[in-house]
Amino acid sequence: MVTAVMLSWKREDNVKQIVSELSKYHLIDEFIVWNNNPDIDLDLKDAKVIQTSGDMGLYTRFIMPILAKNQVILNLDDDLIFPESTVNALYESYQKEPDRLHSLFGRNPSPDNTYAEIIQEGEAEISLTRCCLYNRQYALEFFKYKDLFTSLQHETFGNGEDIIFSYMVYHLTGKKSKIHRLEHLNLPEPFAIQYRANHKAFRTELMIMCKKHFGL
Question: Which one of 42, 133, 135, 146 is most buried, counting C-beta atoms within 10 A?
Answer without folding.
Answer: 133
